[in-house]
Structure formats: structure tokens, C-alpha cells
Write a structure and sequence with these properties.
This protein is of the alpha/beta class. The protein folds into two domains: about 240 residues, Alpha-Beta Barrel (TIM Barrel), CATH 3.20.20.60; about 40 residues, no CATH class. Helices cover about 50% and strands about 10% of the residues. It has a nine-stranded parallel β-sheet, sandwiched between helices. Helix 9 links the parallel strand 8 and strand 9. Keywords: Lyase. GO terms for molecular function: lyase activity. InterPro entries: ICL/PEPM, Pyrv/PenolPyrv_kinase-like_dom, Pyrv_kinase-like_dom_sf. This is Isocitrate lyase/phosphoenolpyruvate mutase family protein.
């Protein structure tokens, strides 16, 4: 069931407010309605989607293996399962041109997303990142499309400078991240997302030098969420990590069933039939 315009406005305002909180917040990432409902039941005030988790759950690789329409359906299923604001991972916008990005933004807002992640990764190994000028135009088109919706949709500009290992040194990578981040904020982004940055000194530098909010991603081995927020991050998300943990548990269950036909791994994390029914009641 699609949210009413007033409900969408309330959710968009609530999601904006989370980014203005003094100490920042944690945004868990769901890959289907069940995981989204579990995060909501745990008390999280908002939920993000994970394009990688969604792709894996459908037997596909990460990296825009879905069409715009296919991913919209996945996001809509999550939005319609929860009552908290949802931030949609729209990858690189399902098209190179600003017009295609705007089309994607409009479609994801139409299914109820009140926050969007748009990345600068091209998926092309020969040129892994869009040029700065091209990405600025794409972000400006995204901003125009969010404004046209009449909702204060939060636009998080992801840069893959660290994922793509841009440059020949850490100094070059950091300088490019700052250059891009400032340009993305100037183009209309509300914040800059720099995945793989977990070094606290780097987070502090980005938070102080970018001129806008910085969002980062947590994963096993990273500093605690609280520590990264204390270092200056406005938002910490978890990407596909929870989904990968679920895959790891499923792999252990499969091995035990194959090896001994017993259920210890399954029992250790068993959710329960009645709990599952109650979750969706």
C-alpha cells in the first residue's frame, strides 16, 4: 500500500531530522521485507536498502544487475513492509545521463523512498568513476527531481574513490575525495558517503574539511558505530554486511545438514514460528 502524501512528507521530515541530531545515527540496511521488519522491530527509526543484498537474495551479482523497474519493485516491497522512513540505494541511477538519473529519482520517490544514495561508480573498469563534471550534472538532475516531488528527500552522494583505489597514494585518494565531495555538495547533495573509510583520523578530516555531512559504512573489523559517529560521521550504515552474515549462517546450516543431519547451527539462531507470525501480524 502506497503511503499518503502527508505520510510521505512526515517520513521525509523525520529522516531529515535524523541527520541533524547532535550525535548522528545508525542506518541498518535491509534486503527484503522480513529483514526490514526485523530492523524496525528492534527500534531503528529508519532503514536503508542495500542493492548488493537485494541482488544476492535474487541470485544476481552486485552492480546494477537490476533494471530501474526491477529495483523499484524491490524497494517498494520494503517500503510497504515498514512504517519508518526508507532510504533507497539507487546505485548509479540506472543510466548515465542526467535525464535517466532524474527518471530514476522520480520513480523511487513515487514508491515511497524519502532518502536516496546515488554513486559515482560507472561499473566500467577502464573508467571506474564518472568524471567530476558528469557526476555534478547527474547530481544536479537528481536534486531537481527531488525538489519537483515537493518532498524534502535526502540526497546522499556516494563517491567510490576508496573502493576503486583512486590514485597512486593515500594522499591522492584523500585529495580526490575532498574535491569530489565538495563538488557534490555544491551540486545539491545533502551529504557525502565515502564507503570503506573507517580510519578515525580520516573521518575527522573529512568531517572538518568537506563543508557538509559525511556518511560512512560499518562492517566487521571496523571501529564501533559510536566511535565513528564521535569522529564526526553524521550517519553510519552497514551496507550488505547483515545479509552476508545471514548467508554465512545459511552456509553453516547447509554444511551441518550435509555432514551430520543435525540442527545445532539452525537452533542457535532460530527465530521461531510464532515470532515470525507475530512479526508480520
Amino acid at each position: 500500500m502506497t503511503a499518503t502524501p502527508q505520510a510521505s512528507l512526515n517520513q521525509a521530515r523525520a529522516f531529515q531530522a535524523l541527520h541533524q541530531a547532535e550525535h548522528g545515527f545508525l542506518l541498518p540496511n535491509a534486503w527484503d521485507g522480513a529483514s526490514a521488519r526485523i530492523f524496525q522491530a528492534a527500534g531503528f527509526p529508519a532503514i536503508g536498502t542495500t542493492s548488493a543484498g537485494i541482488a544476492y537474495s535474487r541470485g544476481k551479482r552486485d552492480g546494477q544487475s537490476f533494471t530501474r523497474a526491477e529495483m523499484c519493485r524491490e524497494v517498494a516491497a520494503i517500503v510497504n513492509t515498514v512504517s519508518v522512513p526508507v532510504n533507497a540505494d539507487i546505485e548509479a541511477g540506472y543510466g548515465d545521463s542526467p535525464a535517466e538519473v532524474a527518471h530514476s529519482v522520480t520513480d523511487f520517490i513515487a514508491v515511497g523512498a524519502v532518502g536516496l544514495n546515488l554513486e559515482d561508480a560507472t561499473g566500467n573498469l577502464a573508467q571506474p568513476l564518472y568524471t567530476l563534471d558528469d557526476q555534478q550534472r547527474r547530481l544536479a538532475a537528481a536534486r531537481t527531481a527531488t525538489d519537483a516531488s515537493g518532498l524534502p528527500v535526502y540526497l546522499n552522494a556516494r563517491t567510490d574513490t576508496y573502493i576503486s583505489q583512486f590514485g597512486d597514494s593515500e594522499e591522492e585518494r584523500l585529495a580526490e575525495t575532498l574535491r569530489r565531495g565538495r563538488a557534490y555538495l555544491s551540486a545539491g547533495a545533502d551529504s557525502v558517503f565515502v564507503p570503506l573509510v573507517t580510519d578515525l583520523a580520516t573521518i575527522r578530516l573529512l568531517a572538518s574539511e568537506l563543508g557538509g555531512p559525511v556518511t560512512v559504512m560499518a562492517f566487521p573489523g571496523a571501529p564501533s558505530v559510536a566511535t565513528m559517529l564521535d569522529a564526526g560521521a553524521t550517519r553510519v550504515s552497514i551496507g550488505q554486511s547483515a545479509m552476508l552474515a545471514a548467508l554465512g549462517l545459511t552456509a553453516r546450516i547447509a554444511r551441518e545438514l550435509q555432514d551430520s543431519g543435525t540442527y545445532e547451527a539452525m537452533q542457535a539462531s532460530f527465530y521461531g514460528f510464532s515470532e515470525a507470525d507475530h512479526l508480520f501480524s
